[in-house]
Amino acid sequence: MPSFGPGPRRLAAAIGLALGILPGCVQKDREHRVIVSVADQAMDVYEQGRRIGRYEVSTSKFCVGDAPGGCGTPLGRLEVAKKVGDGAPLGMVFKSRKPTGERLKPDAPGRDPIVTRILWLKGLEAQNRHAFSRYIYIHGTPEERNIGHPASYGCIRMRSRDVARLFHTIGVGTEVDVVLGPLPEPSPAAAHVALNQSSPVVARP
């Protein structure tokens, strides 16, 4: 059978090399940035410096910190190292980052697993260097009634619909800053955008 040129994989590799992208390398998302406030139990999402969303979250119900074996939410500058769960339905239960096939509705009684999506965080500073090995995620939770209050064991929890939207908005390499203080107030333009988003975006009182 005659050959009509390189296969899709070889062609993609050639294009990548031409663009200066080495095989196996993932281009980091520098268009987006996430800020999580422990004080507000909320998250701001930015695109090219413009805030595009604010969501309620839950950080640790115990403390902040990065002690190995501890249950604190690490502070400081981190980044999204891996994304897990693309295409999974809302409420899909994950165990060891694998879908189990079980789906839970919000506030299912007696259940508190990781659901819907996982964004695995890696620390970029000495104060959060253990985050990746501690399995600190941004992830969905069925305990949506507790969102907006400290409720996790170190991770950053979100409502399923919100974490699914975040998952598809930001990429690997997006910086995530976890701060103790409050988030800045939205500008009138940002507030207008928030009111027209399909997923709830909350303003700090």
How would you summarize what this structure contains?
The protein has 3 helices and 10 strands; from the N terminus they run αβββββββββαβα. By secondary structure, the chain is α+β, with helices and mostly antiparallel strands. A hairpin with a 4-residue loop joins strand 1 and strand 2.
List the helices and strands and how they pair.
Blueprint: H1 8-18, E1 32-37, E2 42-47, E3 50-56, E4 76-84, E5 92-95, E6 98-103, E7 114-123, E8 137-140, E9 156-158, H2 160-169, E10 175-179, H3 188-195
Parallel strand pairs: 1-10, 8-9
Antiparallel strand pairs: 1-2, 2-3, 4-7, 4-10, 5-6, 5-7, 7-8
Could you describe the 3D structure shown?
- By secondary structure, the protein is of the alpha+beta class.
- Helices cover 14% and strands 29% of the residues.
- The protein is built from three helices and ten strands, in the order H-E-E-E-E-E-E-E-E-E-H-E-H.
- Strands 1, 2, 3, 4, 5, 6, 7, 8, 9 and 10 form a ten-stranded mixed beta sheet that branches.
- Strand 5 and strand 6 form a beta hairpin.
- Mean pLDDT is 86; it is low at 1-6, 16-23 and 192-205.
Features:
14% helix; disordered N terminus; 29% strand; 205 residues; 3 helices; globular; ten-stranded mixed sheet; alpha+beta
- The total of helices stands at 3
Name the poorly predicted regions.
Answer: 1-6, 16-23, 192-205
- Biggest beta sheet attributes: 10 strands, mixed
What is the residue-mean pLDDT, rounded to a whole number?
86
Radius of gyration: 19 Å
Strand tally:
10
Shape: globular
Assembly status: single chain
Helix content: 10-25%
Strand content: 25-35%
Topology as a string of helices (H) and strands (E): HEEEEEEEEEHEH
Structure classification: alpha+beta
What is the rounded distance between the termini? 69 Å
